[in-house]
Amino acid sequence: MKRIVGKWLGVTMLVALIGCGGQSQKQFTENDINIIPKPDKVELMAGAFVFNEDTRFVVPEKYAEVTDVLLNKFEAAAGWQLEVVDAAPSKNYVKLVLDPAMGEEAYTLKVTEENVLVTAKGYSGFLYGLESVRQLLPVSIESDTQVTNGDWVIPAVEIKDSPRFKWRGFMMDVSRHFFEKEYVLATIDQLALLKMNTLHLHLVDDQGWRIEIKKYPKLTEVGGFRVDQEDKHWDARRTPELGEEATYGGYYTQEDIKEIVAYATSRGINVVPEIEMPAHVMSAIAAYPELSCFQNPIMVPSGGVWPITEIYCAGKESTFEFLENVLIEVMELFPSPYIHVGGDEATKTNWEICPDCKRRVKEEGLANVEELQSYFIRRMEQFISSKGRTLIGWDEILEGGLAPGATVMSWRGFEGGLKASEEGHDVVMSPTSHSYFDYYQGNQDVEPMAWGGFTPLSKVYEFDPVVEGMSPEQEKHVLGGQANLWSEFVPTEAQSQYMTYPRLAALAESVWSKKENKSWADFSNRVQAMFKRYEVMGINYAKSAFQVTTDVTVDSETGTLSIALKNEFPNSDIRYSLDGSDIDGDSQQYESPIVLDKTTQVKAQVFKDGEPVGAQLEKTINFHKAAGKPVTYLNKYHDSYQGAKDVGMVNVVRGSKNFHDGQWQGWLGDDMELIIDMEEPTEIERVTVGALENQGSGIYFPVEVEVLLSNDAKSFDRAGVLERDYAANTKSELKDFIIDLTKQSARYIKVKAINLGTPPTGGGSWLFIDEIIVE
Length: 775
Ligand code: TNX
Fold this sequence. Notes:
The protein contains 17 helices and 38 strands. It is an alpha/beta fold.
């Protein structure tokens, strides 16, 4: 029973509730509606619906399973076993109403004090309507133990909702690290909560084959295990000796797979299996060396392999027989309309020299080995489509010509998707720039080890699978978007959760909600409500979005710096100190940019409900003689890495290990050469040049740094030089190149840093420099 006692500003509804078990008062406002992803339309009405032990679920028989999630929640958190019935009582019920005219996954939800009506065309719509009910309930509904005095009330609302895209995906790499079946099932629950509908399982890679194939038992017996070198950095693991004991690994039996697929289906999720080919398959070759060109025995690698040259032989017929047999078993297990065949990152040096591959190239009239890859994928496409399924692969399958019926998953940016959609193919966008969950989401100095990229929460939120410049025709080919969690640096479930949440919530909104309904400020509030839900569920979500970062501007007139403190969420309560003292709730509250004119230690921290959240910022802003002085570039930095632009090199803020932190200036294959104008003759005795190395990302320390001085900006004299030889380095590292000079006076300082040029491991060579410090 409820009684309206007031209306405030037309938004706040004051609702006095006299619940069954006593008196409870609940005041709902729009701030209480925190559903993620944001529904199309939400209208808050007067009143509320109170769940109690007598609440009934009225469900068409065929859809009985769809209520499982919510009924289980009530059983655990409220201790009630709510009944499912055929016919509605007079009031106090949740009813699922069929409406065949509605869109495939759409639903409407109407909550009054009498009942809750979910209307949909079928299973998925009902499921999503009920997931919205779940998100309207207090977060304690997620508790797996009984909550005393639970207040199981939801606001009266009318919701109309439907997805923007039909492919709303998440990829788990279970090869690089293996995850138990139970964790996969738990992830499926999280996907369903966010109305995601596709789980892509990356079941095969060099470092482990994870699905039982009855016809080829060695795939899992041998290919499922590797020599345990988990104590070493992924890229520092040695090649195992033949015959060494392989103890790290695991795989899913066919029974496991059936269970995963059935569970996913009950949560509205299609499981797309990925069986990689022709590369990323050393695990298969370790089991069956005859699948490779030269049939050399190999072990399953324990860590990173680059480039990947041990790949399937494209010349021998037996390779295709093997793959077809594998896919037959896979297709029996997975009802998915899409079968993923990988196709990425094949280095085809063996194909160039293998007699079988050479013969194939000749016989098929192919121009090169790229076309041989295309031939490979085309054959698989024919096979897969002959079974009524659609082949999907990474965007490399475009190279050498795309197979006719193939769908492309665009990962190297949006380009592959643009090109494929232009050619009339369907595409799923999963660009590294927005949807790689193995990349850092916060300050690299305080985050757990990850790949060098940077996809913070707000960047994921910006993700739009439809890119500017697409024609309406191309847009129709965009099935949707997907996040990928590669697991080289994700060894545990806790770490997997950390990388996945809350970024998955941001991604879900990007692929479900209409563009015009998205707002970062609004999402910021709702996702913080989701954090509380995650806490009750025991999920190790990342709090990186709370980390304080600095934006620095230099005033060259006054020689002062202005430091703005912010974190990803707007309007946070940021506290700071400038004297090295520790931060607590009584520390100075940040309001507007802070002006500094001397070396200062800045500490800052976000507070939420009076408690510190996220990592604390600790940064020393070292003033030096060149701070804010004009810089002329004789060789301009690269467009992709402009740092803080022309003044950035002397803005006093140092680049961190995160090379996307907006401080680093980069030169690709090129040297840095610039002149700092001190504006008047200045005593100089030391010049320090900060550099970053991250060889995995192609960034190398300079091999030489040189300082030259002048008073007329024309003739420069060499004042000091430092040389450094290349050395292999698996870590991300910062280094100061310090050049001590004989103290002298000069107005102009020319600084050169020489790029390594050609790294021994191949690829391009980036030079990353930030801050030139003059003392
Ligand atoms: C590239 S994305 C890969 C994966 C790695 C990932 C790391 C793709 C199709 N291939 O094999 O795990 O980068 O971010």
